[in-house]
Amino acid sequence: MSGSRLPGFLPDDPEEEALAGPGLVVPSGPAAEGPLELSTSYLGLDLRAPVVASSSPLTGHLEGLLALDAAGVGAVVLPSLFEEQIVHEAEVATELTHREAEAHPEATGGYTPALDDYNAGPHRYLRLVREARDQLDVPVIASLNGVTRGGWTRYASMLADAGASAVELNVYRVAADLDVTGRQIEQETLELVEAVRAASPVPIAVKVGPQWSAFGDMARRLADAGADGIVLFNRFYQPDIDVDRMAVEPHLVLSDADELRLPLRWCAILHGRIDASLALTTGVHAGTDVVKGLLAGADVVMTTSALLKHGPSHAGVLLEHLRAWLEVRGYASVREMIGAVSQRTVRDPAAFERANYLATLTRYANERKGW
Ligand SMILES: Cc1cc2nc3c(=O)[nH]c(=O)nc-3n(C[C@H](O)[C@H](O)[C@H](O)COP(=O)(O)O)c2cc1C
């Protein structure tokens, strides 16, 4: 499809044009005859659709996975298997006494058997991968969670042997140690990615939170360290305080659609600039959110909270909306729309972001003149 610039989008001022780039790309004519093509490419895998069910309890059992498959998702990501669980299992099996030899105490000290209720434990996890691979029509992505570079990363190859098409590395870490610098955390994360990359015969995606000083640089280094894809962004669950009991309370609140904006911005910035697929996660609730994520430059959008709220069939609702949107806009395929509203052609993304910041404040103030 040849594209054209959307009339009226570009500013007249050449300096502003330098910031804005050539603008939106819109389809040049009616969609080609034939069915709409929803397929996309993610981590080098061909997916039938760009909506992926991300890690959650819903993807932790075969029944949920089959329902998601029936609803049309492009792939499923299983709940994370935790470093602590794998290390613990290895210790029990080999009766090793020096458990701290290879792993960091932060990761191994907190083993809790209750984790096995969350994802069935390492042994049954491999069985779930195998069953899902046999019974689902879509790729099954296994998920590992850890913070250290230890022998446990070899589990990635066992997951691949069991049938996982890819491994997602869920890097969930709160930098609460005041003696640890940002640079150290970046370095440890990159070493972890390298270790999983070396152990995994299948593609790996790295799922990260948003709190990095310069996420663009970090994203590029993650790709250089071997990440085939970046999943942005995980949500950190924030405990609350119960003022009656005067105690900390674990608190899990599902996301809402406003949280989409942060990953949306970063997909738009990174699209076309790093050598890795992009998956947008957080805040995808409605079909419009799927459209926005793809326009910003995500190769797939992932969703969890909406599926937990509305059930697995909601994935079908999201895809129906996407199909209708493509039809109305004259796109023949999802691949044509990916990145159409990204910053790929913006020469200076930092200046573009700053110009938008100033424009947003000015517009708000102008709308409220006369207060
Ligand atoms: C109950 C629950 C369990 C989750 N478990 C995992 C997990 O095991 N591993 C992981 O990487 N993300 C996990 N997530 C995060 C989701 O995969 C997703 O990235 C996050 O909820 C943001 O997407 P959403 O706005 O669509 O919910 C979990 C989320 C929820 C709500």
Description:
By secondary structure, the chain is of the alpha/beta class. It contains 15 helices and 14 strands. An 8-stranded parallel β-barrel has the order 5-6-7-8-9-10-13-14, surrounded by 9 helices. Strand 8 (166-170), helix 8 (182-199) and strand 9 form a beta-alpha-beta unit. Bound molecules: flavin mononucleotide (FMN). Flavin mononucleotide is lined by residues 54-57, 79-80, 143, 170, 207, 234-235, 252, 254-255, 281-284, 303-305.
Short description:
The protein is α/β, with parallel strands linked by helices and 371 residues long. The chain is 42% helix and 15% strand. It has 15 helices and 14 strands.
Mean pLDDT: 86
Largest sheet: 8 strands, parallel, barrel
Please name the CATH topology of the largest domain: TIM Barrel
Q: How many structural domains does the protein architecture include?
A: 2
| CATH C-level category of the largest domain | Alpha Beta
Cα Rg: 22 Å
Widest β-sheet, arrangement of strands: 5-6-7-8-9-10-13-14
Oligomerization status of the protein chains: single chain
The chain-level structural class is: alpha/beta
Q: Roughly how much helix do the residues carry, as a percent range?
A: 40-55%
Hetero groups bound?
flavin mononucleotide
Number-wise, the strands total: 14
Q: SSE string, helix = H, strand = E?
A: EHEEEEHEHHHHEHEHEHEEEHEHEHHHH
Please indicate the percent range of residues in DSSP E strands (runs of 2 or more).
Answer: 15-25%
Q: What is the end-to-end distance?
A: 49 Å
Corresponding CATH superfamily of the largest domain? Aldolase class I
Low-pLDDT ranges? 1-23, 96-101, 104-109
